[in-house]
Amino acid sequence: MAITYNSQSRIFKLDTDHTTYLMGLTSEGYLGHIYYGPRMEHEAGTAPFRLPEFPSPSMLRREKIAFLAGFPFEYPTAGVGDYRESCLDVVGKDGAPGVELFFDSCSIEDGKPALEGLPASFAGDETAVKTLKIVLKDPVLGLRVTLLYSVFPAEDVITRSVLLENESPDALHVRRVLSMGMDMDNRDFEMMGLFGCWARERHPERISLHHGKQVLSSQRGVSSPQESPFMAILTPEATQTQGEVYGMSLVYSGNFEACADVSMYDSVRLVMGINPENFDWLLTPGSTFTAPEVVMTYSGSGLDRMTLSFHHFFRDHLIRNPYRGKLRPVLINNWEGTTFHFDEEKLYQIAKDAHGFGMDMFVMDDGWFGLRNDDDHGLGDWEVNENKLHGGLDALVRRVKALGMKFGIWIEPEMVNEDSDLYRAHPDWAIRLNGRDPSRGRNQLVLDVSRKEVRDHIMDQILKVFHGTSIDYVKWDMNRYLSDLESSSLPADRQGELSHRFVLGVYAMQQRLLDEMPGLLFENCSSGGARFDAGMLFYSPQIWTSDDTDAIERLKIQEGTAMVFPITTMGAHVSLCPNDQVGRTTPFETRANVALAGTFGYELVLSDLPDDERALIRKQIEHYHQFHMLNEEGDYYRLNSWSGDRLYDCWMVASPDKKEALVTYVQVLGRPNWRSTAIRLKGLDPDQLYTIRLVSGSVKKGPQHSSADQDMDKLFQTECRGDELMNIGLYIPALKDFESLLIHVYA
Ligand code: GLA
C-alpha cells in the first residue's frame, strides 16, 4: 500500500518505491511531521515524535508557547505562538489574526485530483497513484483545511496541495496560504536554488543554512529568472552521486516563496507556496481556495537521482501536449535576423532558405500585427498588419506550407502599449495604480487578465487570426514584470488577490488556446526564460530557456534548468557570432552541440553565415533528428560542470534500455600541454559492449593542432564494455577553448 493510516498509533505512512514519509497526530489533534527519507518497510512505533521537551498543551497548559516553539508542525499556522515561518495566516471577522488547526478526518483515494483553475500533475494510471486527504479544522474561524498528498511510487514523488473552505457565516481574509510545510532536524543542511536574471537564468547556487530564515522568492508576478520556484535541501557531502537531497518544485508561474527556517533548536522548517507579500484573499462564506501543487522528491544518492525523479515525473505526469514524446520540428525564427523590419517577401525568403537546409518550420516572431514597427507601439492590437504582410497572413502561410514547412507565430497576449487602439479604447484594462504614473517595462503595461472580459477580448482577436489560416506552433511571450498592482475591477478589500488572479487568468487563456487548437505545438517564453516553471509545462511542452544563445553562457543556464526539468523542454537555438549578449565567438559546431540538448532551431539569417558554417547545417539537423528521441526519453546525467572547475562541461543521456547514450563535452578553457581527460559515464549496462563514435566535433584540423587531433575520428572508432566506460572512463583528447565533441555510444 502506498498510503496507510494506523488509527491506533495515529500515524500516516506514505511509501514510494524508495522513500517513506511519516506524519502523526498528538492527542489534541495537532498534525506533526515525523520523517521523510529512505523507505522503511515496517510501521512506525506509537511514540515517534522526538521526546517533547515541553509536553503538549493537554498535559501542560501553562507552557503552550514552549511546546509550539519546538513541535514539528506539518502545516504550521500563524498567530498563536509558533514564531517560525508559517503556512497559513487568516484573519477573522473581528480583524484579529490567529489560526489553529486540529485533525478532523482523513480519506485515501485512488488517482490524483485535478486542481481547479491550476496546472496540476495527473496520475495517468489511476490505480498506480493514491491520494491522502487530511482534513484539519479551525473551530473558531469555521475554516476547513484539506491537505492533499498524492503518492507516485515509481517516480519517488509525493505531491502536495491545500484546499481551504470557509464554513463560517463570515468572510475570512487569507493573508498567507502556502502549499507545504515540513519540519526536520538540521543535519548541517545546505540549500540549493537557481538564481539569475535576464540572459543569465537559473545558475545553480548552494549555500550553508544558518539560523534564521533563508528565502527564495519572486514578487515580480512571474516565477522570474532571479529566483526559481525550486529548492533543494542537501546534506553537506551531497554531490551528483552521493548524499541526501530533498527537492521541491512548485507547479506555479507567479509570485512564490520557498523558505528554510532554522530554529533555536536546530530544526529546519521548509515551506513553499504562493508568496504572502501583497497577498490577501477574501474567502466569502461557502467559498474555497486552492493552493498550487508542490512536487517533492527525496534522493539518498545525490543530485542525479533527484533530477531523474523530477524528469520522469514531469514527462509522464505533467506535460500534456501531444508533442510530448515526439520529434519537434527544427525551426528557423526570424527575430534575431530581422527584428521588426520585414515584409512577407523577406520572411518567405528566410523560410525558403531554411527549407533548403532541411529545416521543418518557419516561425514569424514579433512585429506582424497592429502598428508594431518597434516596441513602443501596437501591443494589444492583434490584427494582421497588411502593410507588412501584403495579401494577408494566410497568403504567407500558404506559400511557406507549399515549401513543405510548418508555420509558427509569436504573440504576447498579456501586454498593451499605450500607443494602441486597445489602450485608447480601454485604459482601465491595464494594471496601474490610480493617480500614479505607472512603471513601464519595454514601454508596455500589463493587461489585467484577471478580468474575463479582457481575456475574452484578447483571445477572441488572436484566435480569429489563427482560425483564419493554419498555425502549427505558437510562441507565447511575456516581456515585463508586474508592478503598480491595482485592478480597476476589484473592490478595495480584494486588491490583494490581483497577482494570483492574474496567474489564473493566464492559465485560463492558455487553456482556451489549447482547447481551440488541440494539435498545437506550444512554447512559452518570457523575456527569454523568466517563466520557466512547472506550471507552464502543464500547458507547453517546451519553454524558451534564455535570450542568451551564447554557447558558453548557455552551459550554466541549461545545467541549472536541466537539474529540474527534462532537457527537451528547453528551447535552444543556434545564433550568429560574435554573440549579441556577450560578444563571444564560439565554433558553429559547439553552438549546435549545446543547442542539440534542447528543442533545436536556428535564430539567424542564413545568408549571414560563412560558407563553411552553412555547410554544416544539414548534418546538424540530421543529428537532431537522430538524437532527439534519445534526449526525450533517456536518462540525463551531469558528468562535469564548468562552473565548478572552470574547465569543461559534460553531460550525457542514456536510453532507458541502456543500449545507447549521447555524450556532450565542451571545453570552456583549454589547457596547454595537456593530455586526455577521463570522463566516467553513467547509466550504462556494465556487461554491454559499446561502440564509440564521434558524431560532431568542433576541433579544427590544421597545423596548430597536434597530429593526434588530426585523427580525432579514428580515436573514437573503438569498442568498450559499459563497466570500463563507467569506471575507467571515456578518454577525451585535449581540446582548445570552446571546442566541443558529441559522442554516440551504442550497443
Ligand atoms: C522577447 C523574446 C525574444 C523575441 C522578442 C520579440 O525578448 O525573448 O525571443 O521574441 O521578445 O519582441
- Give the strand order, joined by hyphens, for the main sheet: 6-7-8-9-19-15-14-11-12
Biggest sheet record: 9 strands, antiparallel
Bound molecules: alpha-D-galactopyranose
Give the second-level CATH assignment, the architecture of the largest domain: Distorted Sandwich
Proportion of residues in β-strands = 25-35%
Fraction in helix? 10-25%
Q: Give the averaged pLDDT, no decimals.
A: 95
Account of the 3D structure:
The protein has 747 residues and is an alpha+beta fold. The chain folds into three domains: 3-317, Beta-galactosidase, Chain A, domain 5, CATH 2.70.98; 331-634, Alpha-Beta Barrel (TIM Barrel); 637-746, Immunoglobulin-like, CATH 2.60.40. It is 21% helix and 30% strand. The protein is built from 17 helices and 37 strands. The protein has a nine-stranded antiparallel beta sheet. Helix 7 packs parallel to helix 8 (498-516) and helix 10 packs parallel to helix 11. The longest helix is centred in the C-terminal third of the chain and has 19 residues, at 498-516. The two termini are 38 Å apart. Mean pLDDT is 95; it is low at 702-709. It binds alpha-D-galactopyranose (GLA). Alpha-D-galactopyranose binds next to loops.
Task: State the gist of this model.
The protein has 747 residues and is α+β, with helices and mostly antiparallel strands. It is 21% helix and 30% strand.
Annotation keywords:
3 domains, 21% helix, 8-stranded parallel barrel, alpha+beta, 37 strands, TIM Barrel, Beta-galactosidase, Chain A, domain 5, single chain, Immunoglobulin-like, binds alpha-D-galactopyranose
